[in-house]
Design goal:
Strand content: under 5%
Number of strands: 0
Helix content: 55-70%
Oligomer: single chain
Number of helices: 3
Radius of gyration: 16 Å
Largest sheet: none
Distance between the termini: 35 Å
Structural class: mainly alpha
């Protein structure tokens, strides 16, 4: 019973960490989304496309969420920053 409770609690910590990461990712691009893509709000896919199109003008924290268009896929590491979850339409 104790092991089961510990497993559930560790799962909750992982979920909380993931939620915090998602919030940081979204926050990194919030100002840029309003600045460059205000007309696309609330369409998440259009916002993501707009931010990608304006990648070079984004603040560094947001730019890190978008791979360069010419970046080879094989050079992408599992630890590389990933696009915010809201880009995927979640």
């Amino acid at each position: 019973m104790m092991a089961g409770a510990a497993f559930v609690l560790s799962g909750m910590n992982i979920c909380q960490a993931a939620e915090t990461t998602r919030a940081r990712e979204a926050h990194a691009c919030e100002r840029d989304a309003f600045k460059f893509c205000g007309n696309d709000i609330p369409n998440k896919k259009k916002i993501a496309a707009c931010l990608q199109a304006n990648r070079e003008q984004l603040r560094p924290a947001c730019r890190a969420m978008f791979p360069a268009p010419d970046a080879p896929v094989e050079n992408m590491t599992p630890d590389a920053p990933r696009a915010p979850d809201w880009q995927a339409g979640r």
